[in-house]
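Sample entry (57 residues):
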Amino acid sequence: MSDPDKGGKKKECLMTEQELYEMLLVEDDRFHDEGRDLYMDEVIKKIRKDLETDGDQ
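Predicted structure, serialized as tokens:
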């Protein structure tokens, strides 16, 4: 069998959609400021970068 870590394939996401959503809520609860929307945009951009998606659907 071929090694999945070779060949430039995307990394497999080990978190469920629910776990990612819960993580966002925890991060959001820690940030209490009028810049919350900007902060959430940055969190979403980081997740998309980590998952190698562009968000254009």
